[in-house]
Each structure stands twice: as structure tokens, then as C-alpha cells.
User: Fold N-acyl-aromatic-L-amino acid amidohydrolase from Sinocyclocheilus anshuiensis.
Amino acid sequence: MALVFLPALARMAVCGGTHGNELSGVYVVQEMERQRKDLLDHYIDQNNFLNQAVNMFFSAVNCPITDSSPYEVWRAQELNNLLGLKGSTDATDIICDLHNTTSNMGLTLIHYTSSDWVTLHICKYLQTKITKVPVRVLVLDVPISDAYSLESVSKHGFSLEIGPQPHGVVRADIYIIMKEAVDLTIDWIHKFNSGTVFEGGDVETFKFIKSVDYPRDPETRTLTAAIHPQLQDKDFCLLKRGDPLFLSFSGETVNYKEEETLHPFFINEAAYYEKGIAFHLGKKMMLTIPTVQVQKD
Amino acid sequence: MALVFLPALARMAVCGGTHGNELSGVYVVQEMERQRKDLLDHYIDQNNFLNQAVNMFFSAVNCPITDSSPYEVWRAQELNNLLGLKGSTDATDIICDLHNTTSNMGLTLIHYTSSDWVTLHICKYLQTKITKVPVRVLVLDVPISDAYSLESVSKHGFSLEIGPQPHGVVRADIYIIMKEAVDLTIDWIHKFNSGTVFEGGDVETFKFIKSVDYPRDPETRTLTAAIHPQLQDKDFCLLKRGDPLFLSFSGETVNYKEEETLHPFFINEAAYYEKGIAFHLGKKMMLTIPTVQVQKD
Assistant:
């Protein structure tokens, strides 16, 4: 297996509350802030970690939920200035942006390229260490300059999605898993910066293919069906021709009609109703990643 | 057992969307509207049912979520004029107001008096007929003139709460149970108006005692703990001294300290965070209701 040397990761930001009603990240960041004196001083001393961004992000908690308000545009600019600039050598090394979903997606790591060895190694590490819930990797393979999410501002970065959890609610079980995932990410970076060699290998990922909308009334655009009980909570199952997708409010089943078997995810996510998305469909994809080690100075 | 004669129920309103992001009721009312020609014509012919209110209420779907906006005050006035007037002889006979909760409360029927034989008989009927989920009855024993909910406008009325369902989401399993509960309520009224004698007996209810807030930072008022995993989703369990209530974000458990055993409900309801309510506590209470039959003209 090829050995690839990569630069040390000097600056990391853990961000909660990018979507203000997804509460796990808000309280994970609050708790890290509280632990800052103990935990992060330790990392700063030993590994040149900077905690400043964690502090800054806590202030994003109460931002409005809509994607397009002037406040959000202004805030995105501000965060880019703070953590970026996007695409520049000064950009933060790694951003971990914390999200919740109402879908039963367990822990899902979302990123924007299939060739970022740092984030893929972190995914592999979390898949090995976390056993309480499924850990999946989702690749949205778009050019980084087109990526619209917060973590695209940094050199490396991923979104950490955990569900199911209603928006506006914090569940202790979901909080504990998110906190563990963040702690393990920091643990990986710590080990990587200290010279640990991380063996390469295969990582199972899902690649986004397309979205499917709810059946709607052609005139009013109101929903005429909900996710079928046999599909509800079955994120990342294998969908075959004839499997039930929707159950109309009058009781009729709508089936999957396509030949290609695909994997549905973000099934029945609250924030996607207005975007016209009942679920996404993805394809399983094995990625081979090289062995990595930090560059010597 | 005493036999009580009660007036026929001539006007009923089924209301969804009183809280606009609680979607089950929105789609139940939409579906009833669609079925109107078949279903309600039938009832109007045979039982003097009026459907007008069902139609009117569908327009409440997209009202804002806050309780205190000028729109909501204006709308409450309008609904009182349409279905009331509250406390008058012209008031609608029965209102069934449909709600969802993020709490694991199954089907809970909430009403404002422990001596309304009509609603208690409907509760008893639903408890007998619905077996897929627990059916509980919650009594908030306040004078009807002080009751602030929609159904208090009518002569009889109850809120029908179903969960767990995230706000902004419609789950088929929850929709099906709500629809069944509404159909059975109409079924009961139909039978009652047709002269069926409903036997009295005991009805198990829960009486509201008090509310408990989350542990909060004394200065910032932000939460410092979530509902404990052992309490989460355990609505209506029996809470004893020493049982875990909360798990702090740093890992400490907060226990129930009181001697009195009580039953928690509305555990971790999203809409109650801002009201300072982590859960309510109630006491089990057996109510004896008389046999009832419709008054002859």
C-alpha cells in the first residue's frame, strides 16, 4: 500500500448550531467550551491545536433557520473571513460541522470529495471505533468551489449528521454519540500529528445519485401521501423494483418502479419538505485510500 | 348503574393544524375533506351531522406557530365566532382538536373536566377499540371558562395528542392511528345519536399535578442536561424516588427526589423547551361514569 505524507493539522473548528434547531451540536460545542481549560489546553501544548473557532461558533446558535435570509448570507461571509478564506492557504485545516436529522440515519459523515485522504481516514477511524450505531460515509462529489456548506470553507471538512432526532429537541442518546464522534475525530488528529501511521484500505461509501419528491396534488402542491411504513426509518436499505415508497392518505401504496437498485437516505427529513425531497437515493461505492503519515518538518 | 339521558350531538368539528407544524391532523382533515361526499353526506342524511366546520378548519393549516401573535389572537376570535360562542347554547356540540407531540405518548386524549360524560365515554370507546398503541386519558381539571384551548369553545371537546412524531414531519404509522381515532369518535357519535346505550364503568385517567423544568445554567438559562436515556420515551411510567430524570452534558445523573410516586408525560416535547417544561407529572385517578343514552325528542 502506498504511503502518502500529509501536512500536520494545526487548526480545527467544531461547529454546532449552523441550523439553529438541530440541538445536539449546540450542546456538544457548549460542553467542549466548558471542558476547554482541561481538554484543549492539553492539545494546544502538545499539538499546536487552536480552540478559538470553537468559541466563536457557539454564538451561531440562535441564527434563523431559513437558508436565504440576509442574516445567513452575512453570517456565511463572516464565517468565511474567520475560518477561511475558502480555497486559500490560510484556511482552517479542518471543520467538523454538527447536524441532526429526523431521518433514522445513525451517524453519517458527509463530505464533498472522494479523494480527501484526511477526512476519509477519519471516517474509517470512526467506523472502526463506534459500534453502538451504524456509521456511514456519504460522498457528494462536487467541485469544492461549488460546495455550499460550512465545512467547504476549510481545507478538509465534513458534516456529521446524526438521527433520528426531532428538530428543537436534544436526546441524551444522540448527544452521547455525537460527542463520542467529535472526541474520536480530535483523537485521530492528535495521533496523526504525533506521527502515527494510519493504514490504508477500503472504505464503504454512498454516492448521491438523485432526489425523490412526495406525491403531491398537481394544483395545490400539497402532499397526498407519506413515506410508506415499510420504508420509514429504513435509511440506507437496498431499494428494489416493487418495494413500497409511499402510502397515500387514502390508503394506496406507491411502489419503486426503476430497475436500478439504490439506497435511500434522508428519508422523511423535516427540513426537506419545502425543498421537494422525500428522500435521496445513493449508490454504494468502495473507495481505496492510501496509508497516511504526517510530514516531518 | 345509573342511566343518564343526554342531548343528541348535532354539530361536530374536527380540527387539524391548530399548531401548524403538527402535520398528522392537517392531513387527516385534508383526507376527510376529500371523503366528504361519501362519508359525511351519509351522516348528514341519517344523523343530522354538519360538516361545515371541517371544511373551515382546513384553512388554519398554515397559521404561525407562536401562541401570542396578533394573527393567532384574531384567529381565535374568528374560530370562537364560527364554532362558539364559548359557553353559549349555540356552541358546536363537540370539537376534536388534533395534535402531535415529540413525546412517546401514544394516543392521549386531553380534556378539561372530569365530569363530561360524553367525552369520557368516547375515551372509553377508543380505549376498547384501539389496540396498536396505548390510549390514555388526561384530565386538566380547570373551570371551562379558564380553559385556553380550541376545544373549550364547544360544549364537549377534547384534544387528541399522538406521538412520537417530529414537528414538521408526517409519519404514516402515526397518521393511520390518528385517522382511526377520529373515525371511531364519529362512529361513537353516530351510534349514540342512533339510540345505542353505552354502559358506564371505570375509566383510568391521569390528572395533571405539576411541571418540571430542565436543569439550567443560573445565569444564561441555557440547558445543562437532557432527559435521562432511562426516562426518555417512557411517558406514563411510574416515577419513584431515586429514578434518573436528567443526564447532564458532562455526564452526571440527576435523580427524582420526592417521596410521592407520579407519572411523567410530555417528556422532551419540543414546544415546551421555551415554556420551561421538561415534562409534566400526573397522578392516576379512576373515574366512574354512568351509563348514557340519547334523549328522546
